[in-house]
């Protein structure tokens, strides 16, 4: 099968998200200038550089009470900071609950019952139960082609790792089993890993 996106795919559901998988989930926590808190998952998320460490996430829809975007990006525009929390398998239901189209006034930490803690380098909350959290200073917001598509780039200014996820000095993903996003309504979980030695190493 071949299709041009502008012509449509003719399938019951868009296959694009199912093709580019699995994708890590950035559980983005933000705080508005008014002090309101928000927590929402984004599967268009990844790490993109080592020095300095940088991450990206994309917001691709809008809410009526936020104009051309959603709560996360609206808060980042106001404050210039955000925290990217990593989602473990055990947190899947709370992550999913936080993904709803809740009003701006909704605090997803309270909605899900998640414990929060203040970040060290930025004015923002983080998810205490997350296996890792990356405190970020926004460096760029790029308007992408298409309505309400915005790419946010952040430089990591602080890194939290749960002590139980460190094994012999290595951050071991098998201690918490990362949740990953597939296509449609599907997710997957990392329960196995293997290593490959690159040529020249």
Question: In a few lines, what is going on in this structure?
Answer:
This is Flavin reductase family protein. This protein has 201 residues and is mostly beta strands.
Structural description of this entry:
Residues 18-173 form the Flavin reductase like domain. Keywords: Oxidoreductase. This is Flavin reductase family protein. The protein has one domain: Electron Transport, Fmn-binding Protein, Chain A (Pnp Oxidase, Chain A, Roll). A seven-stranded antiparallel β-sheet has the order 3-2-6-9-10-5-4, covered by helices on one side. By secondary structure, it is mainly β. The protein contains four helices and 14 strands. It has helices spanning 16-19, 71-79, 92-97, 108-112, and strands at 23-24, 26-31, 37-42, 45-49, 54-59, 81-86, 116-118, 125-127, 132-143, 150-161, 166-167, 170-171, 179-181, 187-189.
